[in-house]
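Running co-folding for nicotinamide-adenine-dinucleotide.
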Amino acid sequence: MSKLYFESYQSINTLLKTLQYSSAYVLVDQNTKLHCYPLIAPFLPSHKLIEIKAGEVNKSIDSCIRIWEALSNDHADRQGLIINLGGGVITDIGGFCASTYKRGVQFINIPTTLLAQVDASAGGKTGIDFQQYKNQIGVFSEPEFVLIDNSFHRTLSNREKRSGFSEMLKHGLIADKDHWEALTHLDYEKIDLDTIKKSVAIKQAVVENDPTEKGHRKILNFGHTIGHAIESTLLGTENALLHGEAIAFGMLSEAFIAVKLNLLEEASFQQIQQVVEKYYGKLQIEKALRNKS
Ligand SMILES: NC(=O)c1ccc[n+]([C@@H]2O[C@H](COP(=O)([O-])OP(=O)(O)OC[C@H]3O[C@@H](n4cnc5c(N)ncnc54)[C@H](O)[C@@H]3O)[C@@H](O)[C@H]2O)c1
């Protein structure tokens, strides 16, 4: 399991001294290049920047080629280090490219969205979307460490914060009633580091017992079977949903099925519905699909 550091990004230089590497590459998208890289750059050792386009549609093989080409053209060797600075798209694709370049080089994650901090950056799942399928190609591979600093949230839109918040709700629903109850009264625009820590700890505990998802880890996929279907269907359309938004509706749908299968009480379903609607409104799936271009 990777070590998680809940520290200021300013400590990156000290943390990197614990690793041995020949050359460092910082992977960004245009938004993290603009908002996050200037903050951390003064504290980074010598490195080269690799930029890909932002967004889920770019969690693709084309972006991988761009990253592998940049590494190869710079003659990066097997002791290279990739520093993933961004949201879940960057940590997923950066981890995948690092794990496959020359059969695997080291990488670290510095997640800059709430979603990546509470979920995507830890747990060892890396990968890309392929054809119309989410996360179709990928490998399990752990970063050397993850550095979590919520000061990156300052430039994050409220919609993005709301997206990350749904994975926190998921952690509460699958494992910790108190966490769930606390979250249902929180303002997702102002999530503090302790609440983030609690969510990641839930995920880490599950992953620790089943790192490659042979059984129990599947609990973390709550909301994701239907959520991924919603996300993929609307991807690239004017009604596209952010990952966490799709997962919120996925959790609601799967909770509904659970009631029908007598696996969940109606009252619990109603509470989930109330919370999902409070934060995410209602998804008019037929309308969204009608408008699909
Ligand atoms: N590997 C896993 O275990 C795991 C778990 C959950 C989700 N995921 C994946 O994570 C992805 C979603 O992650 P995400 O929501 O972070 O998406 P993202 O990486 O697309 O980031 C969302 C947007 O915010 C921008 N951004 C990032 N940090 C910013 C900052 N500090 N200020 C301003 N803008 C910023 C990005 O450029 C992007 O436009 C999905 O692909 C999903 O499949 C992976």
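Result summary
The chain has a mean pLDDT of 95.
The first helix runs from residue 12 to 16.
Job closed.
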